[in-house]
Design brief:
Length: about 150
């Protein structure tokens, strides 16, 4: 087996899901700060435009910032982390949305992880749970209290 040393590799998280809502509705839920707080961070501020800055507040320990890499409504939204812990700092995450029948096919990615360590594994699990929260929020208006989110 011819593998690169781990410090030269990058790892990624990918999740696909289907949401019973139009792409423009899903796009707003994944890109607008006032919608993101309904399924992901406790507090969010940002400028939804390419190059815009975002602030994601989860707790004093997890008070992070990112920059919008892509904002193509209603198809693609991605953010590069600019200030976070050492595992998240070199990463970017985002969404590709495709119209599918009466709903939206959501392709989520979180790329640029430098190690498949405990934080990577925990984040992979948390993204799956949070994306279910996104689906429940968009389809049924369910907002899980922040303290109950993974």
């Amino acid at each position: 087996m011819n593998r690169m040393p781990q410090e030269e590799q990058q790892f990624a998280i990918y999740h696909d899901l289907w949401i019973d809502a139009r792409p423009d509705v899903v796009f707003r839920a994944v890109s607008l700060p006032e919608e993101l707080v309904n399924w992901w961070p406790k507090i969010c501020e940002g400028t939804p435009a390419a190059g815009g800055a975002y602030h994601f507040y989860f707790s004093d320990e997890y008070d992070w910032y990112g920059r919008v890499l892509e904002y193509t409504e209603p198809e693609r939204f991605s953010i590069a982390m600019t200030e976070a812990d050492e595992d998240w700092s070199p990463t970017c995450f985002g969404f590709e949305l495709l119209s599918s029948g009466t709903g939206t096919e959501v392709h989520f990615f979180h790329e640029g992880w430098l190690a498949r360590n405990a934080h990577y594994k925990r984040s992979n699990y948390c993204w799956a749970i949070l994306l279910l929260g996104l689906k429940n929020y968009v389809e049924r208006g369910i907002i899980l209290p922040f303290e109950e989110r993974e």
